[in-house]
Amino acid sequence: MDKKQLWRRLPLEVRAQIRRYPKHRQLAMAKLADRGPRYVDILTSFPAACLAMAEQRGTREQAAEARARIERGRPRNEIAQALDLAPWLKRFAPEDIQAPLPKRLTFTEPVPGLYQMLRRQVPADPKYVPPWLTLLFSLIDRGPADVVPWGLKHPSETLRQLLDLDVQALLPVYAFYSKRPDTLAGSLIADPFRTDMSFYEVSESIRQWMDHVIFWRSIDLSHMADCSVMPTQFRGYEITPLITPEAIRIEARLMDNCLGDYVSSVLKGGSMLFRFAGTEPDDRYSVEIRHLEGIPYAWQISGPENNGPTQHAVMILLEWMHVFLDPHKNALPLEYRIKQEVWDELWTPYWEAHGDNRCLPRQPSHKEIAWLVGRIEINERRQRRHQQLRRVFRAG
Does residue 391 sit in the same domain as residue 320? Predict the structure, then answer.
């Protein structure tokens, strides 16, 4: 029987229920529903069990026992026990479960008291339940046991921020290496994970760690020194291109401005950054130049603490751009060149323990590294906003 014939055999209300499941699981759900009315009941009352059977969770004997209990009309807890599945998952609708069920979320608690705590932590707002479950599944399947309570103690708004940072991919890796200082990646963590850390402390520690291992260890940046715009002297100003992440970070610290947020923009070829320094200490600026349709524009020029420039400095900058910047030259192109031997040494302990992490594949593509660089930029920007808020609260 093909898919269309199978679909036509099912009543309209059953089809509507199946459409609530992820698209890639709907055919498997239709095959289950075609087995009989008891399976249709389970599709509605225990979606997690249906997904577990579709994912071929456990052995063949366990799957056969689960089907036998469904056909005998046994309680859902007994079906969960046959599948070695946490029974409290029966409360979730098909739309809530958007990630594969973790193997460690078993019928017996992997951590004492975990399931009772999880029942209390389910977000009251339905729109937060799917991302909450996605985060939970990742923490349980890939993170140490003490990461799970930490990751789920945050209120819904903080949970949204955690997911914006894609912490479900990075936090388990960070927590794993926090306990492995004997490894190369673990030795580079300045502030290892602790359960008493705040969300912002964890995100900052992850940012600094990933920044270090990605930029300083994994990516070959030697080709970035080939810049068409060389340091120049122009009308009393020293103009220096800021090409490498290290140069950008140092300039951001010296100027106490937000220049560090633009590392990934430079690496992706979206911006060119320059130090524009006069003879006086307060006559120094950070300049961002972007190309729109091949034409260079002074996108930003900011002094220490993001103060504005003088009119004199702006006029000299525009004159320099007219003389030295090729109007048809785009911003620096970049191809990320991974040092494969370093990459393997960094992540092999984690791969051996948990398999590939979706942001740390064994042979990362340009797109995947660009994504990871973007995560670092977002982390840094949010941390800076948090520091500004803390200064406001202290002043109040």
Answer: no
In a domain, 239, yes or no: yes
Is there a contact between 104 and 111 (Cβ–Cβ < 8 Å)?
Answer: no
Please name the residue ranges forming H helices in the chain. 3-9, 12-18, 26-33, 37-45, 47-54, 60-71, 76-83, 114-121, 129-142, 147-152, 156-164, 167-178, 184-187, 199-211, 245-255, 263-267, 311-324, 340-354, 366-395
Domain with 295, as residue range(s), is 223-324
In a domain, 331, yes or no: no
Sign of dihedral through CA atoms 95, 101, 107, 112? negative
Average pLDDT score over residue span 140-165: 61
Q: With contact defined as beta carbons under 8 Å apart, do 118 and 136 qualify?
A: yes
Which of 13-22, 129-138, 211-220 tops mean pLDDT? Answer: 13-22
| pLDDT 10s digits, 12-32 | 899 999 999 988 888 889 988
Q: Is residue 313 part of a domain?
A: yes
Domain end residue (candidates: 48, 80, 108): 108
The CB density around residue 9, as the number of other CB atoms within 10 Å, is 13
